[in-house]
User: Which sequence fits this backbone?
């Protein structure tokens, strides 16, 4: 092989490597974005669950306070 053929092969190899690298990075970026979007959805659902749990604890606190009022303070009108 002469010098121009070698440089052509080097250029083709470099272009193929760069193209393959670009495809891998692009697909990896898309996968990471999709996973982050799914994680955001899961976090939003978890926030809803925690808010519901807080409401249940508020009701539980009110009920326990009512029981305490009836047991230790029978003279109060509840």
Assistant:
């Amino acid at each position: 092989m002469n010098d121009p053929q070698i440089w052509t092969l080097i250029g083709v190899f470099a272009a193929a490597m760069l193209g393959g690298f670009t495809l891998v990075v692009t697909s990896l970026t898309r996968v990471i974005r999709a996973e982050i979007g799914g994680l955001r959805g899961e976090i939003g659902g978890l926030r809803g669950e925690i808010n519901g749990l807080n409401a249940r604890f508020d009701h539980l606190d009110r009920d326990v306070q009512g029981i305490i009022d009836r047991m230790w303070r029978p003279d109060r009108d509840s």
